[in-house]
Fold:
Amino acid sequence: MAIPFREVLNSGKFVITGEVGPPKGTNLEKMIHHIDLLKERVDALNVTDNQSSVMRFPSLGTCLLIKEHGGEPVFQMTCRDRNRLALQADLLFAYARGIRNVLCLTGDSITVGDHKEAKAVFDLDSVQLLHTVHTLESGWDIAGNELDGAVEFCVGACVTPDADPIEPQLIKFEKKVQAGIQFCQTQAIYDLDNFRKFMEYARKLDKNTKILAGIVLLVGARMARFMNESVPGIYVPEELIDELASAPKGKGLEKGIEIAGRLIRQIKEQAICDGVHIMAIGREELVPEILAAAGL
Amino acid sequence: MKTITQQKPFEEIIQFLEREQRVYLIGCGTCATMCQTGGKPEVLEMKGKLEEIGKEVTGWMVISTACDSLTREALEEDIEAVQRADAILVMACAFGVQTVAQYVEKLVYPALNTLLLGHEDSPGHFSRICIQCADCVLAQTGGICPIARCPKNLLNGPCGGSEGGKCEINPDLPCAWHLIIERLTKLGKLDKLEAIVPPKDWSVSFTGSPPPPR
Structure:
């Protein structure tokens, strides 16, 4: 049996979370392989919710699978595809089936996904979803009706420490802290100097929220450049791109694993934050190698 | 501010009119004229295009404000040509189309898509200013509406897709929350954003649930 994530967060150990991305379809073989591979290596496994607005096997169903396989799931919930009734109903279901961790997100725009003609919902935003979880915990729904049986979750949110400009993101982050979060997983970070500045601010704001630095595996210089150009809030420093570019042909991925491992090691050794959240985006089978490169 | 419209693809209009031989054309002298989608030049251009594909245009008019009840009188002035048509093609916003439908016992087709209520910043470039949600949030946001201007209708600050003051879905679209924060910073009123804004009441809005009786 996995140790409850809340206990891990409160234990003071360096926390490691991973992520599984559900497939498009009902063939779950590869994902189950990833779950079995990672469940013992990480403290909890996030499950993305129609990631990048692409319709897939659901986050909630995958969380149940992780439970069945003895892992500890983090149920990612976005506000894009469900209104307040559906979000609350899914939270009730998740709790009743033993899911104890939820990550509240706004969700990507419909326009970046594969159902561009869909109607976006966004009835709630991420801060309001956090508030909704806590309202359900108090035994009431957000319309003021009493529940017959409440919920209790370890609640998290995300933040983008490399956003430019950062101030608007910090205003949002402060509201998330105000709404009540136990943990926060960041967007991918590569620039530790900048991340230290964010952590200084975050610690001053609130000492209790556990911050897990987002680690996204870079598979080559091209991907790093693409992320700098096209993904808001991600900044890969030039020297890392040069390092990736200097790798011999066909060795870009190895270099990426080395860089990810090094970042994790530095974060841990310098106690910059409370842990890391590793997003291998489709290459989950490489997470053990990343952890090995980090000396974990 | 005006109703911003855009002409439908001509192929779609031809499909509407597949079984209608005689067509009466109506433009609008207000918003659609300003948008250059349903003024006199556009109506005449449509007339030419329909005639080119063998349709008979029994007549046309540009009603000064198609959404106004005076539309009834305008239609009566040319009632003979209107009656001779199998259908009416309206080059006005959806309000104009429905006003015409109210006064004429004929099939009415829209030639335009009604996009939004907003500004035309430059020809062909529009900003959505208000979606008429019936629960105005401008007091909390420095007079800039995130419901109309943020694609995710966010009420508590920007999403992670805001970069350099622009929205992730379109580099030409300013991030509404960037504008709000910039403005409140300038006014020294950033504290307006400290409190968590609760979920919005959509029950009063025509765009949310059906409105309660009034």
About this structure: The beta strands of chain A are 15-20, 44-47, 73-78, 101-105, 154-159, 183-188, 210-216, 275-279. Chain A touches chain B at residues 79-80, 84, 106-109, 111-112, 120, 122-128, 131-132, 142, 158-160, 163-165, 167-169, 171-172, 174-175, 178-179, 187, 232-233 (CB under 8 Å). The two ends of chain A are 21 Å apart (CA to CA).
